[in-house]
Amino acid sequence: MKIRIKVPLAGPVESYQIGDVVELPAGQAVRLIEKDIAEPLKLKEIEKAVKPESKKSVLKLEDLKQKGSYYYFPDGSFVQGKEEAEKLLAKLKEEGD
After folding, report:
1. Which residue of 49, 82, 84, 85 pairs with 71 in a disulfide if CB–CB is 3.0 to 4.6 A?
2. Exposed e or buried b per residue across 58-95, where buried means at least 16 C-beta atoms within 10 angstroms of its C-beta
């Protein structure tokens, strides 16, 4: 997942400066975004298609975990902003029908 670094960050192997665009494993990128150390680069590079657990199961905005302006889906994908979350939910509903 591609992210943009918001604060200087250094580790045993790499170091990043403000504005650096890096590609990291999804789990690591999500942790940095949650801690406000990085921001997602593009929504299309972040989101995965989320399939409902069953055809009877309808995922609603209230069901999503929210942290700051990010909405997290059960499969670990996420979007920024209520409007983007509603768009993805509508898309998932269409695919499930």
Report:
1. 85
2. ebeeeebeeeeebbbbeeebbbbeeebbeebbeebeee
Same domain (yes/no): 17, 33: yes
Q: Indicate if 30 and 6 belong to the same structural domain.
A: yes
Cα dist from 96 to 24, 49, 56, whole Å: 31, 12, 9
pLDDT tens-digit map of 23-78 = 888 888 888 888 889 988 765 555 543 344 444 457 788 878 888 888 888 777 88
Say which CATH number the domain at 3 has: 3.40.5
The three-class DSSP label of residue 62 is helix
